[in-house]
Design brief:
By secondary structure, the chain is an alpha+beta fold. Among the domains are: 75 residues, no CATH class; 80 residues, GMP Synthetase, Chain A, domain 3, CATH 3.30.300; 60 residues, no CATH class. It contains eleven helices and 14 strands. The strands form three sheets. A six-stranded antiparallel β-sheet has the order 12-11-10-9-13-14, covered by helices on one side. Strands 2-1-4-3-5 form a five-stranded antiparallel β-sheet. The protein starts with 6 loop residues before the first strand and ends in a 46-residue tail after the last helix.
Amino acid sequence: MTTAAVATHLIEVEFKGNRRAFYRWNGESPPPVRTALIVQVERGEDFARVHSIGELAEKRHAGTSHGKASPAELPLAVRRATKHEIDTAVRLRVDEEAVRKAALEIVRELKLDMKVSDTEWQWDRRRLTCYFTAEERVDFRQLVRQLERRFSTRVHMWHIGVRDEARRLDGVGRCGRQFCSSSWLPELRPVKSSSAKDQRLSTLNPAQISGTCGRLMCCLRYEHEFYVQSRKRFPKEGKIVTTALGEEKIVSNDIFRDTVTLRTAAGEARTIPLTQFRKELGESAPAIEEQPGGGRELVTLREPKPARGPSRGPAGGPARGPARDAVREDPDDESGDESGEEPGGTDEASTAEERRADAGQPSEGGGRPRGRRRRGRRGGRRGRGGPEGGTPPQGGPPSGAPPAS
């Protein structure tokens, strides 16, 4: 085999307990899946089997948590395992159960609050890993000393959760199939209680929606997005609407048959298609919704009100609009002066009203005296004179003072 024919391939290998890692393989082609290999680990060599190769290995390396955590320079797989090396690995797997029982005896003697779930020998017997679960922090230093003295090897303690424990030990779920976490699930993601609530499973016995590990089943995540998107097309359950038969309460929705179950005030129930429900609801504009306090709120669709005509003032003339009350200026226009007067001339009625306000006399409409509004050049604060406490105009008497004779 020439040097040009040698290529490097990415492979994913699997150790005991569904523990996986990525390696490089030098050769014309990668080894087939389930091929036994001897690979290089942190301390020595270990036994593993090929889990994925080619395009699938590339995809899993980019998408799985253990792939993203892999070092930049992947280790190299040493060689294919021989028949003798495979037999050695099988004997080690049989011996691991006796090691676990011995560790449990020492745990009971030391009265440690922990559970030894599994033990794993490295293929060259240079390290022994003990996997355990515990509710609180455990001081296992004395346990490690006794295990190292008894088995004459380096002992490594690994704290795992209950879901990781179920993944390592494997088993059959209530569906009758192998655990998803042990068979095909790339990584264990948290399952929220809202997933069961959105699927209307929260009212059941918690044991019926929990897996062997005692946590919510991983499969609750698979169809969660489908339930969320499907229920957006349906009305809210418990809502009271006005249909062709009058006020009815929405009892339940069937997202698979696209039906809505309604119940009248007399207790009569009926199930109609979602399309028919929308038609009936569209013919009746009002809709009644239940409030958290037990009351009801009537929501009515109203036509937009026609625009009103110009209103009349107290003296029979047109009322002063917002443009008369305050002079507005474009903030981008810098051509206005600082006096605050409206460009283009002054209105006689407006000028007379302002004079009365400056003199402290009541206006013609019988309202309270108003002072001249002042503002800055670029939309500053505008004060109001009179008893409201605004700033009086400069050069004139204070608001409310008698006019000078």
